[in-house]
Queue: 4 jobs
Job 1
Amino acid sequence: MAGLEVGDRLPDAVLTAPDGATINLRDYVGKPLVLYFYPKDDTAGCTREAQDFTAALPDFDKAGAAVLGVSKDAPAKHRKFTDKYSLAVSLASDETGVIDAFGAWVPKVLYGREYMGIDRSTWLFDASGKLARVWRKVKVPGHVEQVLSAVRELG
């Protein structure tokens, strides 16, 4: 599987914010970044994950870390998702293949049907922009607490 490995630098990659603005990942260098990829807005697991990150956002802020959720959903869908659940976590749309570059666009099987989809995964970059930790095939319950603990360990 291609993609980033621990120790690699945060790529110079562009995403789209719900309001259509451009987000360059390199702009986050200078503070820790929690970048999480999720399959689809307004589904049970993805909603819970976004709500959990929203609830813990003050703790991530206190630790000096930014949190950004990314899927292939369109910016307008992110706006509806954010409004429907009063989410405070920042979301972005991948319109340029960032998910694939991270190695999070993977083969999946559902009811015997094979397809390509997003591996629910979280990537923690330190303040210098170096990949410090990766969680793959994330199970949502308890995950945000694990990530917050790892952010705090960065010091």
Note: The chain has a mean pLDDT of 94.
Job 2
Amino acid sequence: MEVLPKLIVFSAPSGAGKTTLVRHLLKQKELNLAFSISAASREPRGNEKDGKDYYFLGIKEFKNRIRNEDFLEFEEVYQDQFYGTLKTEVERLWAKGKNVIFDIDVVGGLRLKKKFPERTLAIFIKPPSINELQIRLKKRKTESHEKIAMRVAKASTEMATAPQFDVIIKNDDLTQAKEKAIRVVQEFISKSVPSDEEK
């Protein structure tokens, strides 16, 4: 059995630190990771660049792509605000022989795991507590109190999905969380899994 490229999914409530961990893993050359750029129906914000931060499709184009079944997973996160993973994005990175790493919401993460059960490692990043999460979100100073309250309310629901993931990493000590993330990813990508032809 050959060692096929894998999917590494990081999901967490907003402010749990998943983006920091994903960026750290991308720096580890031996893991041979490439980041999957998500598609979004919204317009770019600030310095965001199309094809670098997201593929900005606009609402009409996003809905067309849904009809054409171009997504591996997608989610309407807020009304008329869609995010998703294009099949072509994963195919592009797999063609380069890369393991694909995702920074996506819990619903999308679990959908990918369901689609590629053997080839996906689903990791849930758990904040020390909801209270700590609220403090981190306030420190960012990027969102209104209403938006923070929405994210905190959503976090309770997201935390309830943690047991459905393969690995839970509690991020109360960033150094330890980084070490554990490298260890579990390294272990998973060195495992051979049966390709579709071999099943």
Note: The mean pLDDT is 90.
Job 3
Amino acid sequence: MAHRHTVARHGAALTVLGALVLGAIPSAEAADPEPSAGSTATAAQTLGADKPSQQVLLALERDLKLTAAQARERLVNEAEAGTRAGRLRNALGERFAGAWLRGPVAAELTVATTSADDVAAIEAEGAKAVVVKNTLAALRAVKARLDSTDILYDTRNTPLWYVDVPGNRVVLEAADKPSGDAFVLAAGLRPEQVAIRVTGNRPRLFENITGGDAFYIDNAARCSIGFSVTKDQRQGFVAAGHCGRQGSKTTGFNKADQGTFQASTFPGKDMAWVEVNAAWTATPEVKAQGDQKVQVAGSVEALVGASVCRSGSTTGWHCGTVEQHEVSVSYAEGTVDGLTQTTVCAEPGDSGGPYVAGGNQAQGVTSGGSGNCTDGGTTFYQPLNEILDDFGLTLKTASQQAAPAPQDGTTADAWKSGRVYEVGATVTVAGVRYQCLQRHQAQGSWAPEATPALWQRL
């Protein structure tokens, strides 16, 4: 049955078995220079959101209660909104306070700023403008104080904190108000700087159970495969860091020798990568419903409010929406920072599996969560771009091409396929400067001059 496994020859990058725990702003026209010849593709066309797989559409219809037409429209809207939000983020600079999507088909893009003078420019990009008190940078600074305090503080009664972008605030979830107040005080913050939400939810890492295609760690634990990757000429896959330690040996679903953990980080982050032997081949596929597959085309990060789908061996293929980025979760085993929170359900055994947004853009691997797929729940994933960047990996995609040689610029300045670019990063190609609009790992076919969805000419 090797054809069913992610990294097995003819296999797919599927989830397997849960791991240990499941100034003045330019106008819209000025901000969007004329594309060079052959680069007129829309953002949706560039990212493949205009031609989603049937498996993605069916899951969106079921889980988000959409019609087929609405599911298609939503994916296109999400892709186009990401580019517009990137332009505005770069233009607003320090005044930027976040961007998010709303509505059944994600038709409403909202961009927040701390200056009323920016409203006209935001609306010129087709977005709704909201003037707020706190910049995104200021909110992140508050969260960073909580992050640093966590090292010395018992967070068993304060398991979750994050920047709530739509709410323009930092939120701390706690078992009770006194516990939340005490954590805020310990961080040296004022009560008005952090909103406390009392909840009985306690995120956990998803526990091991039998089911689905699995890989085994040191003949003991079982875990799920995330996405296939390469490192130079070496092949392998990413998974959750709590699946195994560096040096741990793995066997495949068929108990055949498979590979070795080359790196693993947990807690702090929840990421790992396994190098496989010659009997296994990395592919760009993720398991959807049944034996169907979704082809991964890139790793462009989804906005808050965007739809996202997850594959898991226990509950299969489910979708939901992105609720928050940069979430800190205090598991019983340790705190993990920088996770993304979603409304996708999951259960024990789904841990380690892949999340896909926009129909084919890889997002991350399951870390943990709460709830279940009967009554609904919350899940957290470790963002993939950070895994790729930390470990120097390249995502295996459906249409990988050799990258064109940089024509000029310094080593740090030249565009390079395989490098993870953050929003606002600049590169030089053929004497022209470009600025990144959306966080992603560069693909060979995504050179800046040909992808206005990802790069803005300066």
Note: The helical segments are 28-31, 43-47, 54-64, 68-92, 119-124, 136-150, 177-186, 384-391.
Job 4
Amino acid sequence: MSIIWHITSAVAILSTLMVVTRYNPVHALLYLNVSLMSLALLFYLLGAPFAALLEIIVYAGAIMVLFIFVIMLLNLGKETAVQEKKWLKPRVWVGPMALALILLLEIFYLLHTSQQMTGGPYANGRGLGTAVSSRAVALSLFQTYVIGVEMAALLLMAAVVGAAHIGRHKKTNLHRFLNEDHPL
């Protein structure tokens, strides 16, 4: 299991570095999704399958949809249509696809080996932790940590409003003699 941990950690670090270094926001989102999936696999390897599932559903699912929505809000018109055609070329998808394939192979390997063990992932004698029910997680999130959950929701809402404000087009009406297209 140690080699899988190191491979997954390397994929997480590499994809996170690619998120930071990409100029194109769509490429950064693809690498961010791979990074989130690798973090989910790391949670699973640590013995927290519920946290891994939440990572996939909440972050790799819902938050990525939010990011894509914000990028759609920032669409700047005809010049970006040409750029979007370049984004759909196969060379764009090779990096994230290769890293995601590594994670997929690791997941299949882990699922195959966990079926061979008896008692599930917590009873294998490796000290991975104890199982936590979804009810306990829900009570913890919405009683003990409700302020943190609400602050995260407020922060996400502020990010969407800020992106919508930044992406808003402001048309300036110039006099016809001040317009650059008008010959003097």
Note: Residues 90-116 form the longest helix (27 residues).
